[in-house]
């Protein structure tokens, strides 16, 4: 059962994150304006809240899952460098002398 969930991609590249943020903010802004105008016309603040919450739900549905449109620009990672031997490589030593504070 859990192997089904392992096949679902969970990553999103940086440009996809920017696009998702822009879509999220745009939908929230548009729903807030529509809700404000509609609530003002019918004199019901409740409808304003309902329309903004509906916009929030739609924006979450469109931006939270990692849809393929958010994964179009993957980062080119460097290949892993193979180790020559089983021993760990020594760290370079800092040759600068450190002053002791009194």
Entry keywords:
endoplasmic reticulum, mainly alpha, 102 residues, 3 helices, transmembrane helix, transmembrane, membrane, Spc1/SPCS1
What does this structure look like?
The protein has 102 residues and is mostly helical. The chain has a domain at 17-70. 52% of the residues lie in helices and 0% in strands. It has three helices and no strands. It has helices at residues 2-6, 14-42, 45-63. Helix 2 runs antiparallel to helix 3 (45-63). The model has no long low-confidence stretch (mean pLDDT 87).
What's the helix-strand series? Answer: HHH
Q: What amount of the residues lies in strands?
A: under 5%
Helix content: 40-55%
Mean pLDDT: 87
Poorly predicted regions are: none
Instruction: Indicate the radius of gyration in whole angstroms.
Output: 26 Å
Based on Cα principal axes, name the global outline: elongated
Number of helices: 3
The rounded distance between the terminal residues' Cα atoms is 64 Å
Largest β sheet strand count, sense and barrel closure: none
Secondary-structure-derived class: mainly alpha
Number of strands: 0
């Amino acid at each position: 059962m859990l192997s089904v969930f392992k096949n679902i991609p969970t990553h999103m590249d940086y440009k996809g994150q920017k696009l998702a943020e822009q879509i999220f903010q745009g939908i929230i802004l548009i729903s807030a304006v529509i809700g404000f105008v509609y609530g003002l016309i019918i004199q019901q603040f409740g409808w304003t809240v309902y329309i903004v919450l509906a916009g929030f739900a739609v924006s979450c549905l469109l931006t939270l899952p990692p849809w393929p449109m958010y994964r179009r620009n993957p980062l080119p990672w460097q290949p892993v460098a193979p180790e020559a031997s089983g021993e760990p490589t020594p760290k370079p030593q800092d040759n600068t002398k450190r002053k002791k504070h009194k």
